[in-house]
């Protein structure tokens, strides 16, 4: 195996080249050595090292196997049971299926997922961005800032099922009757798209706060100083310079939050009323739907799995496949956003 | 007030700017108040359940069958003076700890080794495919894992791994039909490992290349350079990943309620192999399973007590993780 020293130049020259282009000696091998040249290893591979290397390979290959089998299994099952017509049909219950033979579709769950995701994101976005801007650009008094920070961290760690029953506790109070509807006795039902959306936004807020803060902090101080030097005050600097520059971070955080909202089940089961079709409340077209109950793909999968009442695995597989496609699309969006050319100063 | 120009937090001030600061500050305060309100109201609602049981609520030696107690609470008379509150939640807490700890320990080891594989040893082709797939797996909703678990893994355990003699041996005590804490922990491991791998891979990549080069220049082999320098420098991130994974595992309700059998049974390690296939039910899954009973006041208060325990553990977890990270950061210089 030849070294660069044999080709040209002095020792120092070859050393520098080796540091910069470590693959020169073995151009045909893949870059697995990452600059660590095997022939320079003085410490021999002890038994522990060999076991460690073997374990790393084992774990990596096992990971490939598990990941591959999950993806392929869902793909096969999904394509097996999914029919395109069913995407535009309303769901029916199992008893209807047994009587009439129609399997029903998943139009309402898909609509429910889209409505809930949009609603949760719309609520979470201003709150998350506002909090992040305050934390990173103002943050005075410091004690309050630290309290807000730890509060956001606590929400990030709170199980969604706890958020769900907290939502039930709050929104069944009489004062929040306008968000859902009242039963005959005057008791507030406390379950609707609006309520589920509000609680869902709490899942997304920590992600948006984190991503926005990171983006704001990566903008160097001289960008702010340049804006101040042009006579802009702080809030216009934030609005015109800092927020546009951190668009990428905000978008990444928001999309991650959307994925989490679309995938959450606990809040949907407890706060969306558990009707398989959209049941608007009151006459107003859009507001009525938001105040009404419905289902999402996650609750549809849960209810049609053997754990729920439906026990129709083929429906569950098909809906899970649709849900997986939505999640993959969101993942793909995050990838696209983070691969975009960032603004010249932001990293 | 004039402040020194050039600091990140300074800048020209005027009326509209001050108004904006107040507005944004008020928004942050609302968020804070909401969180404080959540903790307060959940505890306020849960309080009767704790006060009526005292230490027995948490005690491993209190005895009693959690499921029977839940039924008794659900059927308690309508008169508030005669509400039944007796709840010895140890089997549920035990199941939560058992499943979470098993999954987190396995997946921490697995995630660190897999991240090392991805960063250092994997051929370029495998790495290119594996990284997006890992990120995808981290984003798959838990209900899909639950579906695979209940329709494939549980069935497989029931049909092929559990002998009829084993089922007969505990016939009167618990049903061994594949629904078990072992399956729950297994699927939970698969669920949280990708989350951890994504964080650990980022951390291993962000270790300054000079550190590794330094160790290589001393003649250390590839594995040891990675293990003693990169992994050690990435310790804060590994802790952060473990904390995040533990939070997800603690709060996982839907998937575990689907595959763990929904029985308030306490798996016993002295049962040998059967131990792993005994049913159980963690706290979060208990809330999901019993959500219909929330209209019964004492029952709801008991469920909120479960939620309060989860809330406190999540808060302790995030502060504990923060503390450990700060301690470790002192030794690594790495801004992770």
Work out the number of β strands of chain A.
Answer: 0
Write the CATH homologous superfamily of chain B.
Answer: MetI-like
**What order do the SSEs of chain B take from the amino end to the carboxyl end, as H and E?**
HHHHHHHHHHHHH
- Total tally of structural domains of chain B: 1
CA-based gyration radius of chain A? 27 Å
What spatial form of chain A do the alpha-carbon principal axes imply?
globular
User: Runs of chain A with pLDDT <50, length 5+?
Assistant: 1-8, 26-37
Strand content of chain B: under 5%
What is the CA-CA span between the terminal residues of chain B? 36 Å
Number of helices of chain A: 14
Q: pLDDT average of chain B, as an integer? A: 85
What structural class do you assign from the helix and strand content of chain B? mainly alpha
Strand fraction of chain A equals under 5%
Mean pLDDT of chain A: 81
């Amino acid at each position: 195996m030849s070294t660069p020293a044999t080709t040209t130049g002095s020792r120092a020259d070859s050393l520098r080249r080796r540091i910069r282009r470590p693959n020169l000696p073995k151009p045909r091998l893949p870059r697995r050595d990452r600059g660590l040249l095997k022939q320079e290893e003085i410490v021999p591979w002890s038994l522990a090292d060999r076991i460690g290397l073997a374990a790393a390979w084992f774990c990596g290959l096992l990971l490939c196997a598990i990941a591959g089998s999950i993806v392929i299994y869902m793909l096969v099952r999904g394509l097996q049971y999914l029919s395109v017509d069913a995407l535009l049909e309303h769901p029916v219950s199992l008893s209807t299926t047994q009587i009439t033979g129609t399997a029903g579709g998943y139009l309402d769950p898909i609509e429910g997922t889209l409505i809930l995701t949009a609603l949760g994101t719309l609520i979470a976005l201003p709150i998350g961005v506002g909090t992040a801007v305050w934390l990173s650009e103002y943050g005075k008094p410091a004690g309050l800032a630290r309290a807000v920070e730890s509060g956001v961290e606590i929400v990030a760690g709170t199980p969604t099922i706890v958020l769900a029953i907290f939502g039930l506790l709050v929104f069944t109070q009489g004062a929040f009757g306008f968000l859902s509807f009242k039963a005959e006795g005057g008791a507030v039902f406390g379950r609707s798209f609006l309520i589920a959306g509000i609680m869902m936004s709490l899942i997304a807020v920590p992600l948006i706060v984190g991503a926005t803060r990171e983006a704001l902090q990566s903008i160097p101080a001289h960008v702010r100083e340049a804006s101040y030097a042009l006579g802009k005050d702080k809030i216009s600097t934030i609005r015109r310079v800092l927020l546009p520059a951190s668009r990428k971070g905000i978008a990444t955080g928001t999309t991650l939050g959307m994925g989490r909202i679309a995938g959450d089940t606990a809040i949907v089961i407890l706060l969306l009323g558990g009707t398989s079709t959209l049941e608007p409340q009151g006459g107003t077209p859009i507001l009525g739907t938001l105040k009404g109950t419905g289902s999402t793909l996650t609750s549809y999968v849960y209810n049609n799995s053997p754990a729920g009442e439906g026990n129709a695995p083929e429906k569950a597989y098909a809906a899970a496949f649709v849900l997986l496609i939505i999640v993959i699309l969101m993942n793909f969006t995050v990838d696209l956003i983070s691969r975009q050319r960032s603004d010249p100063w932001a990293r | 007030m004039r402040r020194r120009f050039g600091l990140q937090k300074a800048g020209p001030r005027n009326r509209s700017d001050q108004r904006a600061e107040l507005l944004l500050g008020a928004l942050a305060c609302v968020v804070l108040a909401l969180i404080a309100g959540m903790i307060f109201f959940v505890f306020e609602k849960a309080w009767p359940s704790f006060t009526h049981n005292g230490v027995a609520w948490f005690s491993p030696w209190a005895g009693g069958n959690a499921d029977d107690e839940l039924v008794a609470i659900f059927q308690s008379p309508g008169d508030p003076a005669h509400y039944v509150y007796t709840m010895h939640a140890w089997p549920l807490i035990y199941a939560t700890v058992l499943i979470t700890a098993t999954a987190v320990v396995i997946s921490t080891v697995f995630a660190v080794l897999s991240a090392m594989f991805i960063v250092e040893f994997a051929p370029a082709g495998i790495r290119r495919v594996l990284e997006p797939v890992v990120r995808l797996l981290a984003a798959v909703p838990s209900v899909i894992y639950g579906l695979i678990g209940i329709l494939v893994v549980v069935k497989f355990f029931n049909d092929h791994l559990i002998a009829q003699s084993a089922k007969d041996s505990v016939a009167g005590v618990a049903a061994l039909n594949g629904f078990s804490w072992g399956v729950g922990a297994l699927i939970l491991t698969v669920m949280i490992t990708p989350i951890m791998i994504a964080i650990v891979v980022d951390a291993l990549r962000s270790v300054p290349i000079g550190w590794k080069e330094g160790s290589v220049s001393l003649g250390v082999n590839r594995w040891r350079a990675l293990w003693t320098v990169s992994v050690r420098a990435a310790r804060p991130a590994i802790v952060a990943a473990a904390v995040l994974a533990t939070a997800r595992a603690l709060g996982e309700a839907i998937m575990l309620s689907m595959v763990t059998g929904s029985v308030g049974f306490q798996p016993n390690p002295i049962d040998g192999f059967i131990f792993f296939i005994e049913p159980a039910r963690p706290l979060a899954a208990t809330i999901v399973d019993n959500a219909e009973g929330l209209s019964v006041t004492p029952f709801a208060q008991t469920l909120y007590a479960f939620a309060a325990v989860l809330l406190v553990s999540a808060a302790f977890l995030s502060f504990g993780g923060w503390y450990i990270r700060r301690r470790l950061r002192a030794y690594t210089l790495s801004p992770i």
